[in-house]
Design brief:
The protein has 330 residues and is α+β, with helices and mostly antiparallel strands. The protein has 7 helices and 19 strands. The strands form 4 sheets. Strands 8, 9, 11, 12, 13, 14, 15, 16, 17, 18 and 19 form an 11-stranded mixed sheet that branches. A 4-stranded antiparallel sheet has the order 1-6-4-5. The protein is elongated.
Length: 330
């Protein structure tokens, strides 16, 4: 098969591939996802399924279905269309660029910015901002859009890595799945944990009553593992370093609340009666920041490490807590 980097495709491109002996009977979509490499990188099964559904994959000169059973020596033709623009209007959205090349962009997201467009947040999202900033997006599964491979909550600040093309996205998705990505957070929690460090390991799923919230469940949900250790202790608060082995929705916020020390300022999982007190301390959102991240470059495969400075609101909160501690110890 001719090896072509999809990031360089500006027009329709055809890839020819002959099925080697010993592969007879395999499903077409499974075979393509498990065996076809482009520039040494795999593509997602979903991408191939969409190409097949759109009749852009031919076997022995005929378009086939996903469940078509291959035969040895079958000739597969894969037609890759040029990426189509996503139906979103690019907008300038504030975020800091920590690193960027033709494959990925590493950013520091400020608090208050939603990652994906959704009901109630159809404009001003991180995706809008990336479309505005990145002039060299080559497309994700045939659509010109940034490849979001992980998320941060609206009011959680910090570091994110975003793919600019399908190959980079698939590599990053695999790294997250294989737990090769290391993410470290800084969080200010209400109260002071008695131990210096610990691990919260539970099942995490939807709350049985409030479906918009997540909750620790005893018998259902997905495995969620969070490690924490104290970095600094104040009067009534503590700064923690938090690392996660899994990336479940609201994982850190739920686990810290389960520990009895919710993230300060968290209006959903924290002490809601204290929100007015938090506001007097300058905290109007959960005090959680994705501080650092390490992963492997999707193409060059060398290890990359980045840090996103703690945002001003958390810096001012810590400064105030230190000042109050100093007054109490005079």
């Amino acid at each position: 098969m001719a090896l072509i980097d999809p990031t360089d495709i500006d027009d329709w491109t055809c890839l020819d591939y002959k099925v080697p002996e010993g592969n007879s009977g395999q499903r077409l979509d499974h075979y393509l996802a498990n065996n076809v490499r482009i520039n040494g990188h795999s593509c997602s099964r979903a991408m191939f399924q969409q190409l097949i559904l759109d009749e852009n994959v031919f076997v022995q000169g005929k378009s086939r279905k996903n469940n078509y059973r291959l035969r040895d020596e079958d000739l597969i033709e894969i037609f890759i269309p040029p990426a189509e623009p996503v139906d979103l209007i690019p907008e300038p959205v504030p975020f800091d660029i920590l690193f960027e090349d033709q494959h990925i962009v590493v950013i520091s997201k400020p608090p208050g910015v939603v990652v994906h467009p959704a009901a109630g947040n159809m404009t001003g999202t991180l995706v809008h901002g990336l479309l505005y900033h990145c002039k060299d997006l080559k497309g994700i599964n045939g659509t010109v859009r940034p490849g979001i491979v992980h998320r941060l909550d609206k009011d959680t600040s910090g570091i994110m890595v975003v793919a600019k093309n399908s190959m980079a996205q698939q590599s990053l998705v695999n790294q997250f799945k294989e737990r090769k990505v290391r993410k470290v957070y800084r969080g200010i929690v209400d109260g002071v944990p008695q131990k210096e460090s610990g691990t919260v390991s539970t099942l995490l799923g939807r709350h049985p009553v409030d479906r918009k919230r997540m909750a620790v469940n005893k018998t259902s949900g997905k495995e969620a593992i969070t490690h924490w250790k104290r970095m600094e202790v104040f009067a009534g608060f503590a700064m923690l370093e938090i690392t996660i082995e899994t990336g479940r929705t609201h994982q850190i916020r739920v686990h810290m609340a389960h520990l009895g020390h919710p993230i300060a300022g968290d209006a959903v999982y924290g002490f809601r009666k204290k929100m007015a007190i938090y506001e007097t301390l300058g905290i109007t959102r959960q005090s959680l920041h994705a501080f650092s991240m390490s992963f492997y470059h999707p193409y060059q495969e060398y290890k990359m490490e980045f840090e996103a400075p703690i945002p001003q609101d958390m810096v001012e909160f810590v400064t105030l807590l230190r000042q109050e501690d100093a007054l109490h110890h005079r």
